[in-house]
């Protein structure tokens, strides 16, 4: 399987994350992608290619222009205020408040953020843009007939919505790729999100649409980030009714339970008969992930890669989370090899 990868991911190198009331080194750090690409090369998964540049149009096909303009200038606007740390919101349009978009950068950060752990700093936009191009290039390969491709995106994307960033995500790479496949002639795309966290951004983007089926397995939002989306009773709205399917799972979920939910998810995807599948691939379901609570072991990733291959669909894997950095390469590539060896 071909991997698409850009060294520009390194430009996303913020120094701080607000975690447990402290500013810590971000869990979402450059070494994550380095461990993954090293493993891709060590096992000879396949060629590693640079992304092509599809420009801003495919990003703006998913995201609000005002939001993207905000991301483009957030860091310089923040610095212009003379602030010493990295850009982080501290105020939100909470219940019964105004939704006017403020002028001041502190107001705009709160308007466009869904959470405050994710700081914006020098190079954030450039890396997020490159990650979207990685996903688009992967989509292009699948559209051209490749049975599978791996878009090694960093920063991740599934928490980013039409006009919201947070949860380490800025541009929704999987959603941009899904739209690109549709624009290239696909009639229906399924997104299977196996990251530990609910893909609230992807769900929200396609909530009212019937041309993208969104199916997610994740930590129950009653107990896990992003806390405010991902319940089983969210099934899509309007034309999109029944095209959102969530499997929230409790703390300490083991592989047998997780795999049973995956089997149900795969039946729904098969019934939908999509032209292609996008897997939002987070490996933070691993037993020793520092911010998650599922109990998958390394060999389980190979097993479920093969389960997904059973669909027999052209498949684009888009990298999302995974924070046990020493193991992230093994677990990620296990999914990809499990998929390929089953085919
Ligand atoms: C991004 B992705 C835990 C707080 C979690 C943000 C997590 C973002 C995960 N106490 N904060 O889905 O892997
Ligand atoms: Zn995650």
Automatic annotation (TrEMBL):
<dbReference type="Pfam" id="PF00850">
    <property type="entry name" value="Hist_deacetyl"/>
</dbReference>
<dbReference type="GO" id="GO:0046872">
    <property type="term" value="F:metal ion binding"/>
</dbReference>
<comment type="similarity">
    <text>Belongs to the histone deacetylase family.</text>
</comment>
<keyword id="KW-0479">Metal-binding</keyword>
<dbReference type="GO" id="GO:0016787">
    <property type="term" value="F:hydrolase activity"/>
</dbReference>
<dbReference type="InterPro" id="IPR023696">
    <property type="entry name" value="Ureohydrolase_dom_sf"/>
</dbReference>
<dbReference type="InterPro" id="IPR023801">
    <property type="entry name" value="His_deacetylse_dom"/>
</dbReference>
<keyword id="KW-0862">Zinc</keyword>
<keyword id="KW-0378">Hydrolase</keyword>
<dbReference type="InterPro" id="IPR037138">
    <property type="entry name" value="His_deacetylse_dom_sf"/>
</dbReference>
<dbReference type="GO" id="GO:0004407">
    <property type="term" value="F:histone deacetylase activity"/>
</dbReference>
<dbReference type="GO" id="GO:0040029">
    <property type="term" value="P:epigenetic regulation of gene expression"/>
</dbReference>
<protein>
    <submittedName>
        <fullName>Acetylpolyamine aminohydrolase</fullName>
    </submittedName>
</protein>
<feature type="domain" description="Histone deacetylase">
    <location>
        <begin position="28"/>
        <end position="333"/>
    </location>
</feature>
<dbReference type="InterPro" id="IPR000286">
    <property type="entry name" value="HDACs"/>
</dbReference>
